[in-house]
Amino acid sequence: MAVIIEVLGWGGKSQRHFRxxxxxxxxGRSYQNDxxxxxxxxxxxxxxxxxxDGGWQxxxxxxxxxxxxxxxxxxxxxxSATQLGxxxxxxxxxxxxRILSDHHPVDAAKELHRLEQDxxxxxxFAIWLPLFLISLAxxxxxxxxxxxxEWQWKNVTxxxxxxxxxxxxxxxxxxxxxxxxxxxxxxxSHYCLILLAGLIYSxxxxxxxxxxxxxxxxxxxxxxxxxxxxxxVALLLSSNFALATTMLPRQRWISSLGFVMLLIVVSIxxxxxxxxxxxxxxxxxxxxxxxxxxxxxxxxVDDFIVSLDSVFDLADRQALx
Length: 321
Prior knowledge:
Layout: E1 3-8, E2 14-20, E3 24-28, E4 35-36, E5 47-51, E6 56-60, E7 68-71, E8 76-77, E9 81-84, E10 88-92, E11 95-101, H1 114-117, H2 119-122, H3 125-145, H4 153-182, H5 187-215, H6 218-244, H7 249-272, H8 301-320
Parallel strand pairs: 3-4
Antiparallel strand pairs: 1-2, 1-11, 3-5, 5-6, 6-9, 7-10, 8-9, 10-11
Helix pairs in contact: 3-5, 4-5, 4-6, 5-6, 6-7
């Protein structure tokens, strides 16, 4: 029966393992051992494991820092040896080990996320470049459409570069997290996901502006725009978690929605200071749009001015009463 020695990392996750086909194995820093570990706090010949009927007998080979038994399903200690059972965990130096047999069952395979199955399509320069150029063009058109002064490139270059720098920083963060947790960065995939989310938000924000313009209400933009933004943030976070971590779908969604709820609480808290204050300005959709975007029925300016006389007359009667 082979012995499997797993080197455990943060959270008890297996980082690497050794398979040894021998009834007696030695562990230490010396190259003469069956399992060689590079921890400087481990002695050259640290311990020996001898197979028994119920598991393995551990013997400390006069090591400097000794052996700490962290977890042992079948403990049977004596003065010179320790009987270890299946799944026992020990710590030597600063290294934690798990001891298993080759017949130990493993968890069932987990289905890959759809993004992970198609990640090769996203993580390519041929996908990133068109998305980047489209995103750049949308930013320029959006800034041009919302500008009320003479167009000058020097006034918008900093804003465009700042937005792309923020996207780059986010992609680098997720790429570094993936390299740390999964040994693969998927940098371009994260970059493409963030650009795609930005494009969807720009389109949605433009449609919301048209709705607000046609119905002449600020309430539409005050509600729809934040809701769309928060939904996109939740989807983007869940997708990035799928690429950069090994989190299960439920864990990804709980983390993503929890972050969105935190944003909502912070936003409401920031606005509470303005509640109850009187504003002399009416609440209406004040953005300027071209007349061609107005598709709903509208009242002419002349008709609106004429109708004001009746409004003022009603106000005067109510004031006298």
